[in-house]
Write a structure and sequence with these properties.
By secondary structure, the protein is mostly helical. It has helices at about 1-15, 20-25, 30-40, 50-55, 60-65, 70, 75-110. The protein has one domain: Orthogonal Bundle (434 Repressor (Amino-terminal Domain)), CATH 1.10.260.40. Residues about 70-75 have low confidence and may be disordered. One of its GO terms (molecular function) is DNA binding.
Amino acid sequence: MNVLVGNKLRMLRKSKNMSQEEVADYLHISQSAYARMENGESGSWAIHILKISKIFVISPEELLIIDDKTNNGSSSGAVTQLSKKVIEQYEERIKELKKVINDLKKKNENKM
């Protein structure tokens, strides 16, 4: 799934005549981290989906819609699987952030 989104990112970036470095700077990540997203080696695009949508002037849903040019013949079920994967990644991130918040609250309580 990351490959499908990565292909879409590459297509969008090239349509805007932008370099990987320019997109990476906008996202406040390294060029190599962005390259991993485009190559499908990283799912961190999900964390940056709102900024990605803004830079390419698309809705987040448009990033997840995979057309024939992007998926090279993959089944339409890939979109559903991709949506589920995004939800799972966000849920995991929310769990991580809740743990960080609880840890910070405990630290703050111990200081008082």
